[in-house]
Amino acid sequence: MSTDTSQIELYKQKVGDLGASLVTPGMRVGLGSGSTAACVVRALGRRWQEEGLRFIGVPTSVDTAHLAESFGIELTTLGKCPELDLDIDGADEVTRQGYNLIKGLGGALLREKIVRYAAKKFVVVVDERKMVDQLGDHTPVPVEVTPFGWEATAKHLEKIGANIDVRLKKDSKEFFLTDGSNMILDCNFGLITDPVKLENEINQIVGVMENGLFIHCTNEVLIAGNDGLHHLK
Ligand code: 5RP
């Protein structure tokens, strides 16, 4: 099916509204990163201002924190609030079966994964271009690594099959750095047949902080499609 981009953008706003409708007063909520998660934050901002909805948010990135603060949304940290009721975040690939994910093209994967595992429930918001039969379809696995000795870490990743692009800042030759001052190695493994094994293998490598595979941890998916919204549970 061909994809009408302007229509998808419109539905992304609607997915944002649907995601925001899952938040009830007093909830502790993880706020994801990326353009689709931003639609949720904006919709929550409108509910905050227009309906007087009150909840507390834990942002997964500095950008998300700034966006939420621009609406006056109250934010906290996992230090003060280590358990969350709900986390809503975007993704780069989602499997149609099992809702396994690749995340991190926006570079926030470490914080996103920490926030996800602090939450009782995880809802993913995407547009239909992200839906795949198998992970690795069109997205590398972003791997966040500590800058010290990253070349050695990259060699270990190559030994388990990664074809690596070191992520750079847009239109620059400088390394991209995450909010936590780490680097990202975009690791292409081709189609991923055993994501659980790969997630474990990557995380056993010294120098790796975290990888963008989110396996068996998604409860619901909200999809903005050409033909409307889909809510998968
Ligand atoms: C950031 C992420 C984002 O959730 C992911 O990249 C999706 O972003 P978008 O909604 O803009 O496509 O994982 O680290």
TrEMBL record:
<dbReference type="InterPro" id="IPR037171">
    <property type="entry name" value="NagB/RpiA_transferase-like"/>
</dbReference>
<keyword id="KW-0413">Isomerase</keyword>
<comment type="subunit">
    <text>Homodimer.</text>
</comment>
<comment type="function">
    <text>Catalyzes the reversible conversion of ribose-5-phosphate to ribulose 5-phosphate.</text>
</comment>
<feature type="binding site">
    <location>
        <position position="130"/>
    </location>
    <ligand>
        <name>substrate</name>
    </ligand>
</feature>
<dbReference type="GO" id="GO:0016853">
    <property type="term" value="F:isomerase activity"/>
</dbReference>
<feature type="binding site">
    <location>
        <begin position="89"/>
        <end position="92"/>
    </location>
    <ligand>
        <name>substrate</name>
    </ligand>
</feature>
<feature type="active site" description="Proton acceptor">
    <location>
        <position position="112"/>
    </location>
</feature>
<comment type="pathway">
    <text>Carbohydrate degradation; pentose phosphate pathway; D-ribose 5-phosphate from D-ribulose 5-phosphate (non-oxidative stage): step 1/1.</text>
</comment>
<feature type="binding site">
    <location>
        <begin position="33"/>
        <end position="36"/>
    </location>
    <ligand>
        <name>substrate</name>
    </ligand>
</feature>
<dbReference type="InterPro" id="IPR020672">
    <property type="entry name" value="Ribose5P_isomerase_typA_subgr"/>
</dbReference>
<protein>
    <recommendedName>
        <fullName>Ribose-5-phosphate isomerase A</fullName>
        <ecNumber>5.3.1.6</ecNumber>
    </recommendedName>
</protein>
<dbReference type="Pfam" id="PF06026">
    <property type="entry name" value="Rib_5-P_isom_A"/>
</dbReference>
<feature type="binding site">
    <location>
        <begin position="103"/>
        <end position="106"/>
    </location>
    <ligand>
        <name>substrate</name>
    </ligand>
</feature>
<comment type="similarity">
    <text>Belongs to the ribose 5-phosphate isomerase family.</text>
</comment>
<dbReference type="InterPro" id="IPR004788">
    <property type="entry name" value="Ribose5P_isomerase_type_A"/>
</dbReference>
